[in-house]
Amino acid sequence: MPIKRSLLIFVTTSLATGCAVGPDYIQPSPVMPDRYLGHTAIEQRHAKVTADFSVWWESFGDPQLTRFVKTAMEQNLDLAQASARVTQTRAGLNTANAALLPSGTVNTQGARAYQSVETPLGQVLNSKPNFDRHGNAYDVNLGVGWELDVFGGVRRAREAALAEYQASEAGVAATRLTVAAQTADIYISIRGLQARLDIARKQVQTQKDLLATINLLYSKGLVAELQARQAEGALALAQASVPILETGLDTAMNALDVMLGKPPGTYRVELANAVAIPSPPQIASSGSPGDLLRRRPDLIVAERRLAASNARIGMAIAEYYPKLSLSGLIGSTTSVSAGNLFTSGASQATGALGLRWRLFDFGRINAQISLAKGQEAEALAAYRLAMLRATEDVENAFSALVKREEQASILAQGVVSLERARGASLAAYQKGIVSLIEVLQADENLLRASDMQIQAQTESARTAVATFRALGGGWQSDYPEAIARR
Fold first, then answer.
1. DSSP at 451
2. Which of 91, 252, 132, 238 has the alpha carbon at shortest distance from 187?
3. What's the pLDDT at 413?
4. According to a count of CB atoms within 10 Å of the terminal CB, is the N or C end of the chain lower?
5. Rounded CA separation 144/140 (Å)
6. Cα 469 from Cα 177, distance rounded (Å)
7. Predicted model pTM
8. 59 — phi, psi (to 5°)?
């Protein structure tokens, strides 16, 4: 009796205090700088619109871009897969929650039998007067079982399931951010390729005009053959650039269709008319490197997986200890009639305290603990690396955005100068000072500079998208607060 009382007190105290074996999770606090290296340069940018991080794609001022991003949020299949993974991990969490609760089963049965009189039992029964070979049996049983989580293994399993569920939720946010950024990036690339293709075709026409003029002069013996052959080569180079740009444009349009969850070619008609490349907005409230944990969902995924791996260490350590379970049966059985089923004479009850202990399996348990610790160490390294790479992403995006805009500004000045040079050469040609060749060459230089400017503008907008993605796109996490409240 004292042993039973001590065991009961131990079990009750353990369940009440909620103790669990294994290390309690402590969220890592990586040492990060207070400011980004490129923070000052980003603040000094000038743009007409300041971005709203929650809907940053609207800040580019392109309604079609906004519509495509919203469509991708609704139709993208990567996002559908991520949402399905949340459903799976939610089911795992529900299973882990259920493991902490008692389970019950109800079994009922009714049977009617016809006894043989040729068996030993039948011969004995048949020797009695008024033996009825027909017999009835009715059973109604309620069984209850509960594994007592004395050492916290089941609770650690629930912690792991909860962390995996939170990681899957953050994974959906990370996928949404990726889908929005990739959609915007592809759309901007399409507009840039369309502008470059228009310039390339103008270059081809300019080279054709130049070649025609040189061939005419060559036929009259006014220019050397070398100039004619050089003009032919320049035309071939200009013509060769067109198919490459057309291929890139087709590829980008197909990629956009897939991002929107549709077959290639679905939205090509809507994109046929070229429009201006979207302008990057002003980026404010970039925060500090330490804020990335709240701003980037992929970091929350890494951190929650680290928490899950930490909980699995406790799950493995709990295998050192015995498993205790309570079970009981309350039922009623009668073999006469259903009317006597719930009478006191037909009632039956049992209760049991079970124990399961892997007493001679400690070597395997040690291996499982070592495996769990190794996985936790890997997850910790992955989390720290993810933090470093996230900071690297932001720094690279800041630098690329500022430098690309600087390049675009310089090229814009160069285009203005070349436009003036082209005007001056045309005026000189009209006065007979220079030949048409000089005018056409001025046109060619202007088109080449314009092509470089278009590329710089395109990359500026794309790096702005990369910056929003690197900063987390306005997403905020409440998991650290939720962890602190538990």
1. H
2. 252
3. 93
4. N
5. 14
6. 7
7. 0.82
8. -75, -10
